[in-house]
């Protein structure tokens, strides 16, 4: 049973969302403010955090930033602010997804399930290791390194990077990436833009002059060709069963 930390100061919203999550099979812990959220996250080690943006004490962005300093736990942010700049700001602090109030509790459950399906699924066999110079992504183990140092990628960031590296030289629109990487049939395309920006800060030597994650004007993004897929799984066995 996956454990979800619900951080919401409105008792009515917390009760409704908590019941929907519980009925969907999640174990739910609740916190009503930012300080309580950080303390509870340290205590219960949730598999995912549903985080309201507007909180007393520490607001949602501050909580998200502090969680990101110590964990890659997936974060779905709830926001009553509908402006794109506000949504982007939430994503830039490290949130994996966001839902704007008022929202359907069922939609929230589906978003949570989507994120956790990727996070908690057993490693797929034969998915291989992707390499681009010093950048190495082990898809099965869900580990990314650059110059031998582990990269702190969120679930969304890892999935986006792995997808683009698996299709070197191919340009994809933001809408296509939403659908093929995260399975969204709807959503704000600016989500992709923010995640590309965050990825560049982590994988590029100079994020202001990217050489790996390139913008294709009028289309979207592509990963620069030259990446090799080794076909090696975490166990060191290729997809064909031969020892590497």
UniProtKB/TrEMBL annotation:
Residues 127-225 form the OmpR/PhoB-type domain. The modification 4-aspartylphosphate is found at residue 52. SUPFAM superfamilies: C-terminal effector domain of the bipartite response regulators, CheY-like. SMART domains: REC, Trans_reg_C. GO terms for biological process: regulation of DNA-templated transcription. GO terms for molecular function: phosphorelay response regulator activity; transcription cis-regulatory region binding. GO terms for cellular component: cytosol; protein-DNA complex. It holds the Pfam family Trans_reg_C. Residues 127-225 bind DNA. InterPro entries: CheY-like_superfamily (IPR011006), OmpR/PhoB-type_DNA-bd (IPR001867), Sig_transdc_resp-reg_C-effctor (IPR016032), Sig_transdc_resp-reg_receiver (IPR001789), WalR-like (IPR039420), WH-like_DNA-bd_sf (IPR036388). Residues 3-116 form the Response regulatory domain. Keywords: DNA-binding, Phosphoprotein, Transcription, Transcription regulation, Two-component regulatory system. This is DNA-binding response regulator. It comes from Parafrankia colletiae.
